[in-house]
Write a structure and sequence with these properties.
The complex is a heterodimer of chains A (1042) and B (160). Chain A contains 40 helices and 30 strands. In chain A, α6 runs parallel beside α10 and α19 packs antiparallel against α21. Chain A is elongated and about 100 Å long. By secondary structure, chain A is an alpha/beta fold. The chains are: A alpha/beta (1042), B alpha+beta (160). Chains A and B meet through β11, β15 and α17 of A and α2, α4, α5 and β4 of B.
Chain lengths: 1042, 160
């Protein structure tokens, strides 16, 4: 083909290219850029040889394309015209694809995309949620055309925008069109592209330059790379249009040297365009001439700053200079210069071709068009996505991005790299545009989104970015060079547990100074990641500085092992698991009891936050830490070998009173008793254990286990007085007067939350916790046949399962949200369903209908999920006209419970907090009454057992300090009593494989278990326990090895 | 380790770029392409030919991370330290590489087999944590896999 010397030539060329395309020919598009790292070359070779072997060359085109975006599923291919998408291929799959899909049109199910939400396989590219949620404007050619073929670019409409600009628009009109489109710079700052062009256009001078900033360096951003690799001509066409608009005749693409494929494809594109006359003199027969050079960077992040970039092109050290003058006045070699980013230029052709109104119809008021985001970090669908501006963070992360691996909670997304900030979970509904991101302390930046979950430490992330900017600071100006270093040092000491109390304020002050005084964007924005994490995650900084605790378990100096670090009671899980692996069961149990005395109880009902952080969970499944604890406790209980008490200090005469024998009170009493105090627990119920004893049914937690663990606590100078009710039988003041030196209040949360609907007081309506308490204490409850339970927590499920065991014919749980929002433990929900309990989701009661004072029917409404509320859950909204009726003879509302403060009147000095809780200091748990401390559900509101026990532990430490006259706040950081040192024992034989999955808990059969209250879970055998314990990766050793 | 530098090899480069403006960095890139690093003798010759003070060339060479003044290992290991790699455990990968090769970031093994670099971001976040050995990517790394990858490229370093 010769040079194209007019728009007509170009159209003719396009027509002949289109005519040459055989519509019946199958096309296999293989990503040869990102997927290369996953073996795309081998797959291409396999296709070539298989197609040749079958003599199908004329029927099948194998096209090497750029990135398809869906990097998480690499290597990927797409097959046209059928639109089939295959993922995670190996060369071995290729012959089957050719024979089945290409020759026989049959879909190979196992190669299609498995939708994690529905577990269904999706064969069509367009139907995959990842693609469905996108509008591909800039990325339209990426993954479609061969980026080394200008023919394919032209056939797909390429260079038509250039022809239109050159022949039917004057430069002013081009500038005006871009202005009207609302396009803003995609490199980060978001300045109006049209405005920038108009400055360069009106600048005086014969020689002007166009530069494309392809020095993409923000960690976590790779859209420019994909565009350059996958569609280089679109960038060049955008540059040509810009050059025409401002009157430039030469230009540069400054591309990072770390992107070899991008450089290669650009060089090919320049050569092809030159051959067709699309670069060079008199382009498409016009007066416009343009030369383009590719400049490779040499590894300096700061060269992404425009003045540094120009210095680098000029062959100098890439240090920035003050602006003004701006590049539009005095840029490259002092001449007016227009610099835009890759994605900005790639947006231009479609704006010129389809017009500014079309472009401006997408996006928000202040931010128009589409934006490419690179999704990385803790997200399922890592890759590149293009969505309209204004799409919410949630849509990008959950819909297109597929959510967080292992369903872990989303914590924040870091946007804008080292210049940006994070968007925390409470802003998931934020529509993404330039302004909204700034309002929460983040920036658009180049569009890198690095997703973080609960395993990411925000202080560590801030330090990471500071070490980055500190490394990349060019050193020219002092605030950036030295300021970032000082900030980095402060962050480093915080992550080492050496942070000082005023460090946060110091960081904020320095950050502001560096922002104000630095020379270029790199310095001015470098404190952002620190300031933004302080803004949204100050509690994490506090935890590092005050508690010497890294909640995410990342900071090495502060983290022994993720399990131990996560446990609210700091039980050394990795320690006792390693002892079990070695068969040292007594030691394992003793280690557990150093921090937490109720091993049998928590071995059954703990919500085990440790397991959610277990590193083995990243490999396959977490260690069954909770059930292992049960094993060592059961073993001791069966052998009746409770060890004698161990005291940490000599026995003292001082008396301490604890009110409430639930988990918080028992824990406080135990830790005080072990420190030598004389402890008396006053309990209003006729049994000890609180909710453990009366709130959880025997089939989950047998009374004998609670009694055994309570017996262990009592050994440590702990006396329990039952049937003693605060306010009735004794008072706090009285306890102090009678010689108790301190009091710990742990009354729990036993008051029921009302439904607030008519008929609530009818006979046959019995609140969940009352129902469970009566059953647990052997009192009579009605033996309902048709039972409905309202609620979605553990109490609701327990009550339903209890009703079933008491002989109910039909038990239904009505819950106003969906299973995903249900607070009950997933295994409990599953067991309940197994037992035949029907759970009706998205239902809310409106009225209780009675007959002769007894509940007869329940009127309900169906709900649907509406907007997200503060807790990040979608609010249920009633559906009009969806009323229906449920026949019931027993109704158990279990929608929530709360503390009862009636025995703690405010005129005694106590103050109520939110949710009817008692106010106590966050750190010390001190109430406003001297010598009186409080913890557990009474203070936190209904929470987990292990949390309540941690509160008891905390209260005991405070009381000990109080009685010893020590400062209650200082140096409270957790110090382990002892660590054990057991070498890792490898699994034997076949079990050494990484595929050795978590042991399953043996259970009673479904039919057998509903007959009585026998415990459902049977516990591990010794063999199972030892095997399970040996699955542990021993994170503690990794740390010790350092 | 004295070594003779054959300066004739860079003459074609110097001639090709001639007096082109801003050619210093591309010239240095090509010179480094020949020797694997930038020997002093070659820089002196570039300085003469381009009529650019050696001090300025030295300034440029030391500014950019990709220029080297000492010989490099046969293979370059680049460990990504980008955000995505960081949140997915890139630090442990780097530690294992350092241990296996017994060198720090920016150093070369004594047998000149490997040089180790850290890179701000390789732009392959979907592979996180990732490292490159020469032009090959190794993604979704777990520390345990690292030694066997390095072994493919030569002696596993001085430590076992």
């Amino acid at each position: 083909m010769g040079k194209l010397s007019s728009p007509a030539d170009l159209e003719q060329c396009r027509d002949s290219l289109l005519r040459a395309i055989d519509p019946d020919r199958t096309r296999v598009r293989i990503c040869m850029t990102g997927c290369r790292a996953y073996g795309a070359e081998e797959i291409r070779d396999a296709f070539s040889s298989e197609v040749a072997r079958r003599g199908l060359e004329s029927k099948v085109e194998i096209r090497e394309t750029g990135c398809h975006g869906f990097c998480a599923r690499a290597p990927v291919i797409a097959i046209d015209p059928s639109g089939i998408f295959y993922q995670q291929l190996t060369p071995a799959d290729v012959p089957e694809i050719v024979s089945e899909t290409i020759e026989r049109q049959k879909i190979i199910e196992r190669l299609t995309y498995p939708d994690p939400l529905t577990d269904k396989r999706i064969a069509q590219t367009k139907k995959i949620p990842f693609y469905e949620g996108q509008i591909q404007n800039v990325l339209k050619n990426c993954g479609t055309i061969d980026p080394r073929s200008i023919d394919q670019y032209i056939a797909n409409g390429g260079y038509a925008a250039l022809a239109k600009a050159l022949h039917s628009m004057n430069p002013d009109e081009v500038v005006e069109e871009v202005k009207k489109s609302g396009l803003r710079g995609r490199g980060g700052a978001g300045f109006s592209t049209g405005m920038k062009w108009s400055f360069a256009r009106s600048a005086l001078g014969d020689t002007k330059y166009i530069i494309c900033n392809a020095d993409e360096g923000d960690p976590g951003a790779f859209m420019d790379r994909a565009v350059l690799e996958g569609d280089p001509h679109s960038v060049m066409e955008g540059m040509l249009i810009a050059a025409y608009a401002i009157g430039a005749s030469a230009g540069y693409v400054y591309v990072r040297a770390e992107y070899p494929i991008a450089v290669e494809h650009l060089l090919i594109a320049v050569e092809q365009a030159t051959n067709l006359g699309l670069l060079g003199p008199n382009i498409l027969g016009s007066d416009f001439s343009f030369d383009l050079k590719i400049k490779e960077g040499a590894g300096a992040f700061v060269c992404g700053e425009e003045t540094a970039l120009m210095a680098s092109i000029e062959g100098r050290r890439g240090t920035p200079r003050p602006r003004p003058p701006f590049p539009a006045q005095a840029g490259l070699w002092g001449k007016p210069t227009n610099i835009n980013n890759v994605e900005t230029y790639a947006n231009v052709p479609s704006i010129i071709l389809k017009g500014a109104p079309w472009y401006a119809s997408m996006g928000t008021e202040s931010s128009k068009g589409t934006k490419i985001f690179s999704l990385a970090g803790k997200i399922n669908n890592t890759g590149l996505v293009e969505v309209p501006m204004g799409t919410t963070v949630r849509e990008v992360i959950y819909k297109v991005g597929g959510g967080i691996p292992n369903n872990r909670p989303f914590k924040a997304v870091q946007m804008g790299g080292p210049s940006g900030g994070c968007v925390p979970a409470k802003h998931l509904e934020l529509p993404i545009d330039y302004g909204s991101l700034e309002s929460v302390g983040a920036i658009m930046g180049s569009g890198g989104m690095v997703v973080m979950d609960t395993k990411t430490c925000m202080v560590d992330i801030a330090r990471f970015f500071l070490s980055f900017t500190q490394d990349e600071s060019c050193g020219k100006c002092v605030p950036c060079r030295i300021g970032t270093k000082r900030m980095w040092e402060i962050l480093t000491r915080i992550t080492k547990g050496e942070g000082r109390e005023d460090d946060i304020e110091l960081l904020q002050e320095m950050g502001q100074m560096i922002k104000d005084a630095s020379l270029c964007g790199l310095g001015q924005t470098s404190p952002n990641p620190v300031l933004s994490t302080i803004r949204h995650f100050r509690n994490e900084y506090d935890a590092h500085i005050l508690d010497k605790h890294c909640p995410a378990g990342v900071c090495e100096a502060l983290t022994y092992a993720p399990c131990e670090n996560t446990c609210p009671c700091r039980v050394d899980a990795v320690g006792y698991v390693s002892a079990i692996a070695a068969g040292r069961y007594e030691e394992a149990l003793a280690l557990t009891r150093l921090n937490m005395p109720l091993a049998g109880v928590l071995g059954r009902v703990c919500n085990h936050p440790c397991e959610s952080m277990c590193k083995r969970g990243d490999v396959d499944e977490p260690i069954a830490i909770c059930s292992l604890k049960r094993f060592i406790s059961d073993r001791e209980m069966k052998r009746n070998k409770m060890p004698p008490p161990v005291f940490l200090e000599k026995i003292k005469q001082e008396r301490v009173a604890v009110v409430g024998a639930g988990p918080a009170g028992l824990s406080a009493a135990y830790h005080l008793g072990r420190r030598g105090y004389q402890v008396t627990i006053y309990e209003s119920l006729p049994v000890a254990g609180g909710m453990l004893r009366v709130g959880i049914p025997d089939f989950r937690l047998p009374a004998a286990v609670v009694e055994y663990d309570v017996g262990f606590v009592k050994q440590h100078n702990v006396e329990i007085q039952l049937n003693k009710t605060l306010g009735k039988d004794f008072t706090v003041e009285g306890l102090l007067k009678q010689g108790c030196k301190a009091v710990f209040l742990a009354l729990g949360a036993h008051a029921n939350q009302k439904l607030n609907i008519p008929g609530e007081d009818a006979e046959g309506v019995i609140p969940g916790i009352v129902y469970l308490r009566k059953v647990n204490l052997g009192e009579q409850v009605g033996r309902g046949q048709k039972v409905a339970v309202l609620g979605g927590g553990n109490v609701a499920i327990d009550a339903a399962r209890t009703a079933l065991r008491l002989g109910a014919k039909k038990v239904t749980i009505l819950y106003r949200r969906t299973k995903d929002e249900m607070p009950a433990l997933p295994e409990e929900i599953e067991e309940a369903e197994d037992e035949g309990i029907h759970i009706d989701y998205l239902v809310a009661p409106t009225r209780i209908v009675t007959q002769d004072g007894h509940v007869k029917r329940l009127e309900c409404m169906r709900m649907e999920l509406g907007d997200y509320d503060e807790s990040g859950r979608r609010r249920p909204v009633p559906i009009k006209g969806s009323e229906f009726v449920v026949d019931v003879d027993t109704l158990i509302p279990a929608i929530g419970y709360m503390p009862d403060l009636s025995s703690l009147p405010s005129n005694d000095g106590f103050a109520a907090g939110s949710g009817n809780t008692l106010q106590a200091d966050r750190v010390t748990l001190a109430t406003r009454v001297p010598g009186v401390f409080a913890g557990g559900d009474l203070v936190t509101g209904p929470s987990m057992v292990v949390e309540a026990m941690a509160q008891g532990y905390r209260g005991a430490v405070s009381i000990d300090r109080y009685l010893k006259g020590k400062d209650l706040y200082k140096d409270r950081a957790y110090q382990p009593v002892l660590r054990i040192d057991i070498p890792k024992i490898e699994m034997e034989g076949e079990l050494t494989a990484a595929a050795a999955l978590r042991a399953r808990m043996p259970q009673l059969g479904k039919k057998r278990r509903v007959r009585d209250f026998g415990e459902v879970n049977k516990g591990f055998t010794e063999k199972e326990a030892m095997r399970e314990a040996r699955r542990c990766l021993r994170c503690d050793l990794e740390r010790k090895g350092e | 380790m004295p070594e003779t530098i054959d300066l004739a090899r860079i003459e074609p480069i110097l001639q090709r770029f001639g007096k082109e403006r801003g050619a210093l960095i591309p010239v240095l890139q090509e010179v480094q392409g020949i020797y694997g690093y930038l020997p002093k003798e070659a820089l002196v010759r570039v300085s003469e030919a381009m009529k650019t003070p050696l001090s300025r060339i030295y300034g440029v060479v030391t500014f950019y991370a990709q220029f080297y003044l000492t010989p490099r290992g046969r293979h370059t290991v680049r460990v990504c330290r980008g955000t995505a790699c960081h949140v997915r455990g890139g630090r442990s990968v780097l530690n294992v590489v350092k241990d296996s090769l017994d060198i720090e970031d920016g150093e070369t093994t004594k047998d000149l087999q490997f040089s180790l670099e850290t890179v701000a971001c390789l732009g392959t976040c979907f592979l996180a944590p990732v490292m490159m050995v020469d032009r090959s990517y190794y993604g979704k790394l777990i520390p345990e896999r690292v030694p066997s990858i390095l072994e493919k490229f030569g002696q596993g370093g001085s430590r076992g």
